[in-house]
Amino acid sequence: MASTAHQPSNSPVQSSDVADAGAKGVPKDNGKPNVPREKRPNYAQIHSRPLPIDVYPLPAFIPHNPLSIVRVAIALISQTLWPPISPLVIHEAYFSSQTLSIHVTDPQSVRALWEQGFWGKGSLSRSEPRWLDMEKRKRGLKAMQTSEEYTAQRRRERRQFKLERARLEREAIEEQRRAEARLAEASSLDATGNDAEPTTSDGVVQTEALISKVDAASMSEPEFVPADDDVTKETEEDLVAESSVEDGPFEIQNQEHLQLTMEEAFFLSYALGALKVERQGIHQSSSQLLRLFCASSTFSTLQSPQTLEEVLPRTPIFGNPIAPDNPFLLKYVVFHHFRSLGWVVRANIKFAVDFLLYNRGPAFSHAEFAVMVLPSYSHPYWSETTERREECKKKESRDWWWLHRVNRVQGLAHKSLMLVYVEVPPPWDKGGQSQDGKLDVGDILKRYKVREFVLGRWTPNRHRG
Amino acid sequence: MTTLPPGLKPAVLPSPLQNLIVEKLEQSADSVHLSDLHALALQVEHNLRYQHSWTDLHIHTHSPISNQLLPRPLVSGLPPQRLYIHPDEQIELLKNADRKRKASKQAQDTLDVEVAPEPEWVLPTRLNEKWTLRRLSDVFNAISIVPPTADENGTPNPWRTTKRVLLATTDSDSTITYYIVHDGVVKPRQN
């Protein structure tokens, strides 16, 4: 603070106010923060690129500076002659038919995909791949706290609290029983019941006292965080005291990989061109990927005795055209829709929905919306025959219980439920039209339409005024 | 990467999980179950071992009771903490812990409830499967109350009287959710 006092101050008030301002933590104009800030990673910097692509903006045009036009012109011409490459790095992944998923194993790609748009999930972490950090910490190689450990700590505290509460409740019940036993004894001894009166009231008072104790205890319950939302602003996670002890003599083999959902992989490779997916060492084109993902989304071990690898080679050519309401396509259309609008879309089975929508990403805020994908058959094709009508009705219909169940879970987790209807077009894949089974992905996606429908539960007490 | 032509190196290194599955499936090429179901069990076992620090993990293909083929491979293992405490057992434990705390004369002590972990059955499934009560009961009929372990000298928990499995559901984003499923109705747990 001494430096501030020495400054030539315009107002006499400033110097006397210094202590006060310092206490509030207002940064002074010398730029030195007064309060030691908690050290936490700068998420805005780490995740500064919302997508794993490179952009080349034109220089700014300043109207009163005619030279700026020249700079714009030079940039335009040079970019036409030598078009810049985007994305500079194409990540690589492979499709694992044994687990029906897409794995990324290169550590640099894993970091990049997570940092630039929150793609994928660490297979052994809740979202950000941090298994290795956790393992190092477990073995005392690194002093840091990951969000998983913070959650474990919180759970321990909650369990301890519940045990204490259970004990108090138990004691209250036993006290009540004793009081009742005494009452029964008294009434059996004394038929007139004159002496029974004080005993009873005494017993009741005692139990009430106990119950109020329990209430007091439950008041002090730590604020219940609805669910393990993915790594969010758990600040403690990032009070990282990275006393970077060198990695010990033995090296831990990283058991974790980044796993992309099929929607993410298809968006990265088809829409952004930032990912190459291979299967059995062979790079897959967009239409091959579409066939592959559509086939594996309907593949179930229970229906066929073969493995996916045995089923796949036949699907593109013989008789197995992609249904227009294939589950992968419906989900991908919704994924593409929201990703294109700038939302970070993440799959989430833990909230019993198809997707969660984050504003900037899970590191910045909790998800705002929970998305449920529903097919809608309003095209006239689907009501042409009675069989078709009945089948569509079966696929479309959900009962009220279903809606209440889904909405109830989201209400507890403070998310708004969004029902997203995908208009299913008439069948477009006639099966084996062309020899190689090539598909025009853009044309297919154009046939689908998306309708959003946000749902909220109205409670009179909360929504008054 | 089993079907890779010789001499062609994959451009992307397979993940440790993928290596494990491929290696184990090769070993048990004449497996009695579908290799797909076996891969699923391996995936769940890998997750339990490394993410949740389970120990003593085994994959069972045959029923420990009848020695018949199980509906699908099941996993058994020992979790780091107890997963389920019967409500009556909890009352008993709380009483003991409270007595102990009073004996130590220090009211500030926290209630120390010590429960030893118990081995559990795990049923690996996929999210797009449809499960019915009949199929679940087929699984329950084939398993014992406690999975068979190497050391039989441990005293069995007197409160563990109904069969239970941990239903592991894998999603395509690698999330595995675990739910405890009991064979029949049990006394509700205090929350």
UniProtKB/TrEMBL annotation, chain A:
Its EC number is 4.6.1.16. PANTHER family: TRNA-SPLICING ENDONUCLEASE SUBUNIT SEN2. Residues 328-390 form the tRNA intron endonuclease catalytic domain. It comes from Westerdykella ornata. The keyword Transcription does not apply. GO terms for biological process: tRNA-type intron splice site recognition and cleavage. SUPFAM superfamilies: tRNA-intron endonuclease catalytic domain-like. It is an enzyme of class 4 (lyase). The keyword Heme does not apply. Residues 1-44 are annotated as: Disordered. Residues 1-17 have a biased composition (Polar residues). Residues 26-41 have a biased composition (Basic and acidic residues). Constitutes one of the two catalytic subunit of the tRNA-splicing endonuclease complex, a complex responsible for identification and cleavage of the splice sites in pre-tRNA. It cleaves pre-tRNA at the 5'- and 3'-splice sites to release the intron. The products are an intron and two tRNA half-molecules bearing 2',3'-cyclic phosphate and 5'-OH termini. There are no conserved sequences at the splice sites, but the intron is invariably located at the same site in the gene, placing the splice sites an invariant distance from the constant structural features of the tRNA body. The active site is at Y358, H366, K415. Keywords: Coiled coil, Lyase, tRNA processing. GO terms for molecular function: nucleic acid binding; tRNA-intron lyase activity. Belongs to the tRNA-intron endonuclease family. Residues 151-185 form a coiled coil. It comes from the Eukaryota. InterPro entries: tRNA_endonuc-like_dom_sf (IPR011856), tRNA_intron_Endo_cat-like_sf (IPR036167), tRNA_intron_Endonuc_cat-like (IPR006677), tRNA_splic (IPR006676), tRNA_splic_SEN2 (IPR016589). Pfam families: tRNA_int_endo. This is tRNA-splicing endonuclease subunit Sen2. GO terms for cellular component: cytoplasm; tRNA-intron endonuclease complex.
Automatic annotation (TrEMBL), chain B:
Transmembrane segments: none annotated. One of its GO terms (cellular component) is tRNA-intron endonuclease complex. Belongs to the SEN15 family. The keyword Cytoplasm does not apply. Residues 43-191 form the tRNA-splicing endonuclease subunit Sen15 domain. This is tRNA-splicing endonuclease subunit Sen15 domain-containing protein. PANTHER family: TRNA-SPLICING ENDONUCLEASE SUBUNIT SEN15. The lineage of its organism: Eukaryota, Fungi, Dikarya, Ascomycota, Pezizomycotina. It comes from the Eukaryota.
